[in-house]
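In response to a reviewer's request, we include the raw inputs and outputs for one of the modeled complexes. The two entities were modeled together in a single run.
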Amino acid sequence: MSISLKNISKSYNKVNAVQNITFNVKQGELFGLIGPDGAGKTTLFRILTTLLIPSEGTASVAGFNVVNDYKSIRNNVGYMPGKFSLYQDLTVEENLDFFATIFGTTIEENYDLIKDIYIQIEPFKNRRAGKLSGGMKQKLALCCALIHKPKVLFLDEPTTGVDPVSRKEFWEMLKRLQQKGITILVSTPYMDEAELCDRIALIQDGKILEIDTPKAIVKHYPKPIYNVRANDMYQLLKSLNDYSHNHSVYPFGEFVHYTDSRSDFKPKELEQYLESKNLLDIIINKTAPTIEDTFMELAK
Amino acid sequence: MLPIIFVMPIIQLLILANAATFDVKNIKFGYVDYDHTTTSRALIEKFNASTYFNVLTNYPTEKFANNAILKGEVDVLITIPSYFERDLQVEKNNNIGVTINAIDGAAAGLENVYVTQIIQSFNKKLKIELMQPSDMQVQSINITTIPSFWYNKTLNYKTFMVPGILVLLVTMITLFLSGMNIVREKEIGTLEQINVTPIKKSQFIIGKLFPFWVIGLGLLTVGLIIAKLVFNVPMIGSLGLMYFYTSIYILVVLGIGLFISNFTDTQQQAMFIAWFFMVIFILMSGLFTPIESMPIWAQYITDFNPIKYFVEVMRMVMLKGSGFVDIIPQLLKTLLYAFIMNGLAVWSYKKTT
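The model returned the following structure tokens for the whole complex.
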């Protein structure tokens, strides 16, 4: 096991940030922690990167205990905090050189590992890190986290605040790193990114709701789910919420995701009800549940 | 940033050394002369001749004069009573009224001394003029003092102030820079990234503080050059000794700065705490007010003030030419202080959050 947590809890004064967390991440796995802001993702990262000492439980990273062998862990992991945290007044190259030196290595020694990523920011290597765009900052931060060839990579919300194209590129880079045998633990509030992970843990209010592959998690969704659409979104939501048989109603892009509490639900009945509420252009289709639907259902 | 670090202290040194004077000059002086005799006029003339007083106005009555004090037109008022000359000749003794505006207590004290000095010297002259042969036997023995000001012959306040202000600037810049430094890394998040690396505490702290140590010594150099070229402050003692002491002293300041940095979360907090100590250190350093005149408990507090030792050493070495042996007490205390502060700073810096 590359990362393993057993009954990890952490509380600040009386607030429980994470409670009783247990999971394992295999060698070379891309594992996602999915949850909203304040779910306890960053706390878990800080415990695993030895910045925080857990209140209870034990954890190990790359075979080292997070409390006793913290020095070995620091040599073997790369950590990219949620907030951009490189030296803004150093250039791209200086930052990379600085972190390489701290880890007692050089850029040349591990260049092949970061080559794919570094090549994209190399044209700007004399630019100060603070003057880079969001996507390029992420790439530089990833390079700095990889420069000492870590066994485990921790990425705390790496794509928050990054444009969709850079996000997609970033995930492609992670996939390539995974092929090089690096274990990656990544957290994200974006449900669409969850599907790109090997396994995910849904986390809310410091507790794990479910751990499985994205496909399996979606299969656990208990009810058929329907896309509902009409000419007036606000009226539609209001009417559906007033409908006596509803189980869940969530806006989802241009549709509303609707589930019914009855097992013998007939879409025709709902259509008639909505028509009676003066809605036009009503469309009701069955659709496949997504991770977001599952999360909403579990978080209820 | 680097130009600011050097330009601002230079401007401060140039302005403060010229402006922060303890001399009280251009005192607004008024008088009421009810006597109108040669003696009273001679006394007024004495004040007029003094460089400290600007003889402003002759008020007809005390009522007008008091009004002028109220309006702030007059700081010192002398009232010469009627029959001043006649009574002096008859009774060999007389009183004149002196009124001083004491809103600024320190200035009022000095003004009183000036007035007393002038009247005393006037007294002596009078005695000779009014003396009669029969008085010879009863005349008391007169003791006069001849002051000789060592180490600052002309009582030039710049000679006294420049080393002190130099001390202030070196301290201020190094304390603020080091105090802001680590807390700034906390704020922008780089500290978190550094903390997960295998870098050792001591390596990190030395790396953080060494640049400020160099900047502090650089500031001292610039300050000494200005002191010599612009203010022509005598430098009797050894420059090497000054640098040696300063290099240890800066360690104390950096330790304090780092300690502040470790216990604060934002630069704003660090700034407030740094200011809190800075103001106490400056006002209790003996730079502006002599430590000997502070209450006993306050004098004990000044023993914990590193600036006090630095001011003492700089003045001793620069003006008196003190050698290594003379500054050993200060040196030892500073060294001890440096060990304690840096020890606390390293101890309180944790690589966890």
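As requested, we also summarize the result in words. Chain B touches chain A at residues 188-199, 351-353 (CB under 8 Å). The longest helix of chain B spans residues 157-188.
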